[in-house]
Write a structure and sequence with these properties.
By secondary structure, the chain is mostly helical. The chain is built from 25 helices and five strands. The protein has three domains: 141 residues, Butyryl-CoA Dehydrogenase, subunit A, domain 3; 192 residues, no CATH class; 207 residues, Neurolysin, domain 3 (Orthogonal Bundle), CATH 1.10.1370.30.
C-alpha cells in the first residue's frame, strides 16, 4: 500500500518506479561492470562506440535516481543510521569502480584520432563538446601507472576539507554562555544559532554577546584554521603542478574554461561598486538608527528583522511567487505549478533535517526536480523558495532539450535563481508600495544581498586567489597575515574611512576578521565564490529587462535556460546578450541600486 504524502512533503518514492532500492543498486553495478568490461574495446568500431555512448546515458539516469533517492532521504534526517549506512555502501561501490575505470581517460586520449573520426558522423556530432572537454585535458593526464596510483590514493590525499568540517561543525565549542539583558544564559552551538538570535531577538544585549561569542571563538582558533588553510592550498598547488598546471588557480580557471584576465576583470569591475557600498551603508545605518531607536548601529544590529508582520503561510508564498514570475510567461509558471502541485518540495523543518535549502543536481531522466528547504513563514523563506524554484525550472527546461548536456556549470548556475529573487523583489516592492516600513525593509535586504553576493564574495575570492598564489610561490602564510590581508581587501572594496579601518583593528570588532578562516568554499578546491557575483549581476540585469516586458531578452533567457552546459560558460552567458568583460552590465547594476538607495532617503 502506497504511503500517503503530506501536502508539504516531497514524493521521493516515485523515483524508484515501483522497484526496490536494491534493484537500482544492482542495475547500477551492472552498468559499471559493462564499462569495466568494455573500456578496452568500445572504440574498436563505430557500432561498439555508439552502443557504449548509449549505455553511458542510461547509466546517468540510473545514477541520478539512485543518488538522489538516497541523499535526499539522508538529508531529511541527517541522524538516520539506515541512510548513513546506505550512503556509505554506495560510496564504497563508487570508489571501487573509480579505481577499475581509472585508465579510461587515458584510453580515450590514446584513441583520439579514431574517436574524432567517429564524431564526424551526423548521428554523433552532438558528442563533440563532451569529447573536446576530455581531449583538452591531454597535457594534464599522467601515464597510466601514475593515474592508477593517484586513483588508489583518492580519499587519502588532502583531506583538510574533512578536518575543517569536523572542527567547525563538531569539535568547535562556543563554551562561554551568552547573557541577555536579564542575565539569563544562552548557549550557541553553531552559526545557525547565531543567525537566529541576530535576526529575531529584540534583546540587544543578547545580540551583542552572541555576536562577540561566536566571532571570538573562531578568533581563538585562528592559528589552527589558518594552518589548515595553508596546508590545503599547499597540497592543491603541489597536486596540480604534478598534472602540469602552474598551480591551484590555473587548474581552477582551466576547469571553468576562463582566463585569469576574466577573473581579474570581474574583481576590477566589482571594486568600482565601492563608493556605492559606502553610500548605502551610511544611509542604511541612519535608517536603522531611526527604526530601532538607537544612537549608533553595531554589527549585531544589522541582521535584525524589525518587521512585526504576521507569518506568511506556504499557500500565500506560492501565490506571491506565481504573481512575481508572471513576466516570465505561462510556459515558465506552468512548471512552477507542477513543482507546487506534484510534490517536488520538502517544505517544513524537521528534527535532524539538513539546514538551509537546495535544488537537486544530477537531474537527467528525472520528472521531478526536488527542492529541500526549511520554510518558517518569513519573507526570507519566500525568497529562498523563489530562488530554488529558479534552479529547478532551469533543470526541468534543459532536461527537455538536452541529454548529453543536461547539466549547468557553476560559473553561471546562480543566474536563474537570482533572476527569480529579483522578480519577487520587484513584485513585493509594488505590493507594499503604500507601507513605507516594509518597503524600506525590502530595499535594504535586497541591496544587502546584492553586495553580500558581489562585494563580499569578491573580497573572499581575491583572498583565496592571493593566498593560493602566495603559497604556490613558497611564501609563508600565518594567521596574522591572513587577518591583515582580509582587512586590506575590505578597505579596497568597501571604501572604509580611516576611523572604520581603525575600528576593525580594535576589539571586539577585530574578532570578526576571523570570518576569513571559516569560508567552507575555500576547501572545495574550485575557486568558487566569485561565481556568486556573476549570478547576482547578470541575474539583476536580466530580471530588470524581463520585468519591463523586454520580449527579446525573455526569448534569450529561455534559450539560456534550455542550453544546459552544451556551450562553454562565457558562450552560455553570451546567449543572454551579456559580455562579462564589458563594464556596461556593472554600470547598469549601479544605476538600479542608486535609484533604490534614493528611495531609502524618502
Amino acid at each position: 500500500m502506497k504511503q500517503k504524502i503530506s501536502k508539504y512533503d516531497w514524493d521521493l518514492e516515485c523515483l524508484l518506479k515501483n522497484k526496490p532500492l536494491d534493484w537500482w543498486i544492482k542495475k547500477w553495478q551492472e552498468s559499471l561492470d559493462y564499462d569495466v568490461k568494455n573500456q578496452n574495446h568500445f572504440y574498436k568500431s563505430k557500432k561498439q562506440f555508439i552502443q557504449w555512448l548509449d549505455k553511458s546515458l542510461e547509466q546517468d539516469k540510473i545514477e541520478n535516481v539512485l543518488f538522489n533517492y538516497v541523499s535526499n532521504h539522508a538529508n531529511e534526517d541527517t541522524t538516520n543510521q539506515k541512510w548513513i549506512a546506505i550512503g556509505q555502501k554506495i560510496n564504497f561501490i563508487a570508489i571501487k569502480y573509480n579505481q577499475l575505470l581509472s585508465k579510461l581517460t587515458n584510453i580515450i586520449l590514446k584513441n583520439q584520432k579514431t574517436i574524432q573520426k567517429y564524431l564526424e558522423d551526423k548521428q554523433l556530432k552532438k558528442y563533440k563538446r563532451e569529447f573536446y572537454l576530455i581531449f583538452r585535458q591531454k597535457p594534464h593526464i599522467l601515464k597510466e601507472a601514475y593515474e592508477n596510483l593517484l586513483s588508489r590514493l583518492s580519499g587519502t590525499i588532502n583531506n583538510t576539507g574533512d578536518i575543517f568540517s569536523t572542527l567547525t561543525n563538531s569539535d568547535l565549542e562556543f563554551s562561554e554562555p551568552v547573557s541577555d539583558n536579564k542575565n539569563k544564559k544562552h548557549h550557541i552551538k553553531n552559526a545557525y544559532d547565531l543567525i537566529k538570535i541576530l535576526e529575531t531577538s529584540n534583546d540587544r544585549v543578547l545580540r551583542k554577546s552572541a555576536w562577540i561569542c561566536f566571532h571570538k571563538t573562531y578568533y581563538k582558533h585562528r592559528n589552527t584554521l589558518s594552518k589548515t588553510l595553508f596546508y590545503n592550498f599547499l597540497s592543491e598547488n603541489k597536486k596540480d603542478k604534478i598534472r602540469n598546471f602552474k598551480g591551484y588557480v590555473d587548474k581552477c580557471l582551466f576547469a571553468d574554461e576562463v582566463s585569469e584576465k576574466t577573473l581579474t576583470n570581474i574583481y576590477k569591475n566589482v571594486e568600482s561598486f565601492k563608493n556605492l557600498v559606502y553610500k548605502f551603508k551610511k544611509i542604511r545605518n541612519k535608517h536603522l538608527q531611526t527604526v530601532l531607536k538607537l544612537k549608533n548601529i553595531e554589527p549585531w544590529d544589522l541582521s535584525f528583522n524589525y518587521l512585526t508582520t504576521n507569518k506568511i503561510s506556504i499557500e500565500e508564498a506560492k501565490k506571491d511567487i506565481l504573481m512575481a514570475l508572471k513576466p516570465l510567461g505561462d510556459k515558465y509558471t506552468k512548471i512552477v505549478k507542477k513543482a507546487f502541485n506534484e510534490h517536488w518540495i520538502s517544505f517544513m523543518p524537521k528534527k535532524g533535517k539538513l539546514t538551509g535549502a537546495y535544488s537537486i543536481g544530477g537531474t537527467y531522466g528525472l520528472k521531478k526536480i526536488y527542492i529541500l528547504m526549511n520554510f518558517v513563514g518569513s519573507l526570507n523563506s519566500v525568497k529562498t523558495l523563489a530562488h530554488e524554484i529558479g534552479h529547478s525550472v532551469q533543470s526541468y527546461l534543459f532536461n527537455q532539450k538536452q541529454d548529453i548536456y543536461a547539466n549547468v556549470a557553476i560559473f553561471y548556475a546562480e543566474i536563474a535563481s537570482i533572476c527569480n529573487e529579483t522578480l519577487l523583489f520587484f513584485y513585493l516592492l509594488k505590493k507594499y508600495q503604500n507601507q513605507p516600513k516594509i518597503k524600506k525593509y525590502l530595499i535594504i535586504n535586497f541591496i544587502n544581498d546584492f553586495f553580500g553576493a558581489t562585494t563580499r564574495q569578491i573580497i573572499f575570492s581575491e583572498f583565496e586567489y592571493n593566498t593560493a598564489n602566495m603559497i604556490n610561490n613558497d611564501q609563508p602564510f600565518t594567521a596574522d597575515m591572513g587577518l591583515d590581508m582580509y582587512l586590506k581587501l575590505i578597505k579596497k572594496y568597501e571604501n572604509l574611512s580611516p576611523s572604520q579601518e581603525k575600528n576593525l583593528q580594535t576589539l571586539p570588532y577585530k574578532y570578526s576578521l576571523s570570518t576569513i578562516f571559516r569560508i567552507d568554499h575555500f576547501y572545495m578546491n574550485s575557486l568558487y565564490v566569485y561565481k556568486y557575483a556573476i549570478g547576482q549581476i547578470v541575474g539583476l540585469y536580466i530580471a530588470s529587462r524581463i520585468f519591463k516586458k523586454d520580449k527579446v531578452v525573455l526569448k534569450r533567457y529561455f534559450n539560456f535556460l534550455e542550453s544546459g552546459d552544451s556551450l562553454n560558460p562565457l558562450d552560455t552567458i553570451a546567449l543572454l546578450g551579456v559580455d562579462l568583460s564589458n563594464k556596461k552590465i556593472y554600470d547598469e547594476a549601479k544605476q538600479t541600486l542608486t535609484k533604490l538607495i534614493e528611495q531609502l532617503k524618502l
